Sequence to fold (343 residues):
Amino acid sequence: MTIQQKIISNKLGLLNLAEELGNVSKACKMMGFSRDTFYRYKELMETGGIEALKDQSRRGPNRKNRTDEQTEAKILEMTFENPALGQLRLSNELRKQGIFISACGVRGIWLRHNLETFQKRLAALDRDYQNGRVLTETQLQALEKKKADDEVCGEIETHHPGYLGSQDTFYVGNVKGIGRIYQQTFVDTYSKVAMCKLYTTKKPIAAADLLNDRVIPYFESNGIFLLRMLTDRGTEYCGKPEQHDYQLLLAIYDIEHTKTKARHPQTNGICERFHKTILNEFYQTAFRKKVYRTIEELQADLDQWLEYYNERRTHQGKMCNGRTPLETFVDGIKVYREKSWQH
Fold:
């Protein structure tokens, strides 16, 4: 007996029972139907016969509203190329290529293919591409155990590029033949332009070298003065001004120094969030593809990724709004000139 036949049999059974008992209420109570349902079945039987008792199928979905196949294929292609991209990031990246689809549209496609979480995208990549470039099971387990994003306490006040720079130290790891590797990170809180340099020590001279070698020359080449720095209270950033390399450099360039609240790393949340991005999108991939013998090799690949991050990767920050950090920086130069007393 088919499902339709069972449905018709139940409906006919209700009508026949009511006729035998001569009591509609009692029949409905015994069969578990309402009186309204009984009279609806009775009307259908009288007007259309047994065929009218068949369940009418639901209206099919409107396929015209569905994303076209080419766009869906492109979304899946970019998803597997970089599973770390979120739905808003992927929407912005597609817009750069002339494909306009909302973040909700991207998520709808991910749900259709069971790719809505980072872990599911990594698992799908591992299943579909067994070519040596996929994440290992150990790395997948590590990502699953990783905590949620640090919550930033309040908003950082920033008005233009150079208004406030954020700096922090990121422990990359212990690489055989090189030793411990530390990354000094600088992020402009307005444009989100990032600069990084690798060191084998976690000392004040390393923190000062990043500013002196890359950050300050970059800002000066664009006619911008760095006004203030935000760091934690680590020994590489804090010490006696007359003896501490980092403090001396800030004094030379007349840069104000602001420190985060003790035991609250989320106060420097912009750097913390960047460290998660660079871990997911660069280091976990780089160490899987290549064995690094020197710190210079790793620095060269890091510089290449930073070029992509600053110049081509869209950012969802408050000031960026889907633009790249470099685009936000260039647009912010005009704001700087309007507000800064130097101009």
In short: The first strand starts at residue 165 and ends at 175. Residues 138-154 have pLDDT under 50 and may be disordered. The first helix runs from residue 3 to 21.
